Amino acid sequence: MNFLNDIHLQELGTNCTELKNAYADVCQESRINHNAGYVKITFLAPTEEEDYMEVTLRALVGEVEHLIRQGVQLRDITILVRKNRNIPPPIAEYFDKYTPYHIVSDEAFRLDASVAVSILVDVLHYLSDPENQIIRS
User: Fold this and answer.
1) Complete DSSP assignment for 9-62
2) What is the pTM of this model?
3) How many CB atoms are closer than 10 A to CB 78?
4) Which one of 11, 46, 69, 100 is CB 3.0 to 4.6 Å from 52, fit for a cystine?
5) d(CA 61, CA 94)
């Protein structure tokens, strides 16, 4: 936790009291003991030119491109976000539009995220009750 606060202090010039408070009572021990892997944590802030989302998306693309130049395979890169409800669709759209890389998230494996599956479900609902006005619309 102090490590993360130090990064926050270095990058944004203030202590991250929210972080300290959120993890004040947490202690984690790992049985895995190896020195492989890479983790980068960055606290981002909006600028006058770019909002938080744009700053975040540009930073993610920059980091992925840096890792690829270092020889990291795409299959070995994972992007974790704090809140899953807002970020993943814009990340995937941004990567699709501005990079040759495609993001696969847990959203991609949800059946209701597939347009084809949704159409098939709607057709089955209609076939099971063609008189239902709600289904017909």
Assistant:
1) HHHHSS--HHHHHHTTT-----S----------------SSS-HHHHHHHHHHH
2) 0.55
3) 6
4) 46
5) 9
